[in-house]
Design goal:
The protein is an alpha/beta fold and 277 residues long. The chain contains 11 helices and 10 strands. β9 and β10 form a beta hairpin.
Length: 277
């Protein structure tokens, strides 16, 4: 369900600055992600999109600013703690274990939520047994069925097409039981049919499971069709944000993507489904 106008933000990025030596990857970036929304972060190559994702998920720590989740400052929390709170993500480049089967890769996503200790797991005692049963039920009866990957559950990841690997990445992120699903270029390298399938899954995970989606994506046709809110970065700076129509008409966005030109030209490229950066 789309977010309400008066909904409190689920995620707040407040003045985030990230530097590597003398290079500023992000400079004072601020925006909110409303609960129940699909928010897209876009921008030309090198704009700072993945750096922003890595900062939100805890791989990088900003030199200034804060990241707040449900009003709690999580800026200094380690990545596993953020995952346990409800931040689940996929990666631009596949982070799957290629020698392992699909089901084992997906199960790894639940690791942050397991309560059984090494002793329980070693002897497969009560708590470990119950957690394993609950995990199998959730993954096999809900996630695998939802993403239509039952036919590959026992296949090694290395044998899968790129599009199916992206789907397994999403399954592993969903196994983390996220409140915010962070997708880093979910349709990169996909053909049109695979892109349409992924777009459908993104819409359905919001509509059927109530999960908020935050994604980085270069496919502007998909971004403009799916998103409630679009955030635009360029050289680490936030240059525009708003609904898709507002962003498409913003002169700064036109300049960032085209260098020069007019709104009509950009809109034609967006609605053709081309990747503009």
């Amino acid at each position: 369900m789309p977010p309400g106008d008066n909904a409190s933000p689920l995620l707040q990025i407040d003045g985030v600055t990230l530097t590597f030596g003398g290079v500023r990857a992000l400079g004072g970036v601020s925006f909110n992600v409303a609960a129940g929304s699909i928010t897209a972060v876009i921008g030309p190559n090198g704009a700072g999109k993945t750096s922003l994702f890595n900062t939100i998920s805890g791989f990088y720590r900003p030199s200034e600013g804060r990241v707040l989740f449900k009003g709690q400052d999580i800026t200094r929390l380690p990545t596993p703690q953020r995952a346990k709170l409800g931040l689940g993500r996929s990666f631009q480049t596949s982070a799957l274990l290629r020698g392992m089967p699909v089901l084992a890769n997906i199960k790894l996503g639940r690791h942050a939520h397991l309560n059984s200790n090494v002793f329980d797991a070693l002897f497969y005692l009560g708590r470990a047994r119950r957690e394993e049963a609950e995990l199998r039920a959730d993954i096999e009866e809900r996630i695998i069925d939802f993403l239509e990957i039952d036919h590959i559950r026992h296949a090694p990841v290395s044998a899968l097409s790129y599009g199916l690997q992206k789907r397994v990445e999403m399954a592993r992120a969903l196994a983390m039981q996220p409140q915010i699903l962070m997708l880093d270029e979910p349709v990169a390298g996909m053909n049109r049919e695979e892109t349409e399938d992924m777009a459908r899954f993104i819409l359905d995970v919001r509509a059927e499971w109530g999960i908020t989606v935050l994604m980085v994506e270069h496919d502007m046709g998909m971004v403009m069709d799916l998103s409630d809110h679009v955030v635009v970065l360029n050289f680490g700076q936030l240059i525009a944000q708003g609904n898709p129509a507002e962003v498409q008409a913003d002169p700064e966005v036109i300049r960032a993507y085209l260098g020069s030109g007019d709104v009509a030209d950009l809109r034609n490229r967006l609605h053709s489904g081309l990747k503009v950066a």
